Amino acid sequence: MKKFLVTIFRLQTLDFILKFSLILSLSFINFIPSAIAENVSSDLLKQPATEITVSLSNSANELKFVPNHLEFIAGKRYLLQLKNPSQLKHYFTAKDFADGIWTQKVEAGKVEIKGAIHELELKPGAEAEWVFVPLKTGTYSLRCTIPGHTEAGMTGEIIVGNL
After folding, report:
1. Exposed, middle or buried by CB within 10 Å (0-12, 13-18, 19+), for 22?
2. pTM > 0.90
3. 3-state secondary structure (DSSP) of residue 163
């Protein structure tokens, strides 16, 4: 009987240790993005931003992003220059991507916006600069949410990878 009780005690202890380890690891995983976000500004503001330009359509008013495939590296600072050379307004919408980045700022004209950004609307001839650091790896959809634009092919893909 004593051996049986010792075995049960060991199994319960092992079960507790495994559950506790799982809880700790999940808590740590959830902590990582916020810890990165808190420390990212001090270190990354010194890092030069990699510039990438994306056109939302073109002067012929074609409904497409140029380029429509964007690749970023998690932890690097980027300056995304968005331009709308067409006569139509367009949206740069990639909500899941935007949820996985730290936005330093968005500048458009004489306005600078800070904080979470999920979608940018560019009116005809408009330009905007989005400075950010991707934190979460993955593949994300890009699209213009104006009715008919996505269906006409104004879509793209954003990939965030590791170093």
Report:
1. exposed
2. no
3. coil
